[in-house]
Amino acid sequence: xxxxxxxxTTPNILKYMxxxxxxxxxxxxxxxxIAEAYRNTVDLAQHADGWGFTRFWLAEHHNxxxxxSAATSVLIGHVAGKTSTIRVGSGGVxxxxxxxxxxxxxxxxxxxxxxxxxxxxxxxxxxxxxLTSQAPxxxxxxxxxxxx
Length: 148
Description:
The protein is an alpha/beta fold. It has helices spanning 2-7, 10-14, 34-51, 72-82, 100-113, 130-142; strands at 21-24, 55-58, 87-90, 93-94, 118-119, 122-123.
């Protein structure tokens, strides 16, 4: 009987409970603002933190009306600063849209600020619409060369 009671005490039973996570897009409601979407994202993350969720991830999307999670690393830092224990990260930073070195530096900095709480998920899809996915290349092509 003691063995059964030990198995079902709180610390032991937590080992067998499923872990839950949230993937958020920072949605902008119709008639709402991006600032309001960020406040709602923080509110959801704080509730998830209090409810014992394991992770709160933000998905990167560009040039999509109604979704405010384009600057993923900035938003991750904001959410991590407003929560206490939940892991916060990216549900996919698309590396074709960013310099891998910059992403490594940003997430390294976030990990230094919030040790053990930052997750980095990466992908290689260009994402979004064609014009947005070509923006980094088009910008490079239009930038005059300063080398001689």
